[in-house]
Structures are given as C-alpha cells and as structure tokens.
Amino acid sequence: MAYSTSATTKGGREGRAVLENGGLALAMAFPKELGGSGEGHNPEQLFALGYSACYGQAILALGKKHGLDGSAAKVTVAVTLDKDDVSFALSVDIKVSIPGADKDKVQALADEAHTICPYSRATRGNVPVTIAAV
Question: Is 52 in the same domain as 87?
C-alpha cells in the first residue's frame, strides 16, 4: 500500500466532515440548487477538488513526454449531480489548458492523463467523463 487516509462525517450532507488527522474539517450543506442553505460544502465540490488535483498530477507526470510544460497546465473539473429514474448520478467535465501550447498536443496529453489518473480509473465505465483541451 502506498497511502491510505480516511474521513468521518456525522450528519450526512447537513453535517460535518473531518479528516482522520484533524487537518481539515468542513461544514457540509446541501447546495441552494437542491433546496439547501448552501452555507457549507458538498461532496460534489470535494470530488471536483480532488479530481482536479489528481488529474493535474497526471498532466505533470506526462507533460515532458508530450513536449509540454505540465507545470503550466490548468485543470478544471466540473462535477454535475443529475437525477435519473433510480437515484442521483454524477458526470464529470474536464478542461485542460496550457497557455501558448498547441491545442492538439494538449488534447493528446489530456487524453493520456485520463488513462493514469486514479480518479479517472475509479470512475471509468461508471461516470460519464468528457475531456477537452481549451
């Protein structure tokens, strides 16, 4: 095992989430769009934060291979929560930009990053993900 962490939440989407080491604790709240106060964080926001950081690391790891400066990359991950016939489902939209870089090269890098990013691997086949160089 390379790394493991855990978090505990009491009160679900209207509670408080705390990392095991106490280094981060967040008030949770339903977003206004779902009838909540919006005065806290929600799981979709936390997923977007984690995914964008993880994907950014994959871009850094592969940048040189593609002749691009991965450290200049900006990765934006948008997470959408939709309702279907059964329950709720997530979808993800990833946008990667590298100022001054050829868009086709950035797209090739972003596509390959999707093959190694642990979040991408975890969601593959279960969560629709779109990837675009912008």
Answer: yes
**Does 46 have pLDDT greater than 90?**
yes
Residues across the chain: 134
Q: What is the pTM of this model?
A: 0.94
Asked if residues 79 and 90 have their Cβ atoms less than 8 Å apart, the reply is yes
pLDDT at 72: 98
Q: Which of 35-39, 83-87, 129-133 has the lowest mean pLDDT?
A: 83-87
Concatenate the DSSP letters of all residues of 2-40 into one string: -----EEEESGGGSEEEETTSS-EEEB---GGGTS---S
**Kind and range of the H or E element at 58?**
helix 43-63
Handedness of CA 84, 86, 90, 93 (dihedral sign): negative
| 86 pLDDT above the threshold of 90 | no
Whether 122 and 65 share a structural domain: yes
Q: Which residues pair with 93 in a beta bridge?
A: 78, 130
> If DSSP codes are grouped into helix, strand and coil, which group holds residue 45?
helix
Domain interval for residue 100: 43-133
Rg over alpha carbons for the chain, rounded to the nearest Å, is 17
